[in-house]
Amino acid sequence: KFTSRWRPSIGWIxxxxxxxxxxxxxxxxxxxxxxxxxVEFTKLPRLEVxxxxxxxxxxxxxGAMRSWDxxx
Length: 72
Prior knowledge:
Blueprint: H1 6-34, H2 39-42, H3 49-71
Helix pairs in contact: 1-3
């Protein structure tokens, strides 16, 4: 469930970015090429996921540490 804190917001941003980069963008690009769209329309914007990866991995690591803390 989405709550109004910063951590879920960052998580949703990462999910949206990864969804675009690895699912939606390649699929849409394929559909445009298959439909015969001009080349300039098939070059969709790419995101820089390396920065998002650092944020996401840090956030997931902190989440695991927090769960371990709560258990202790």
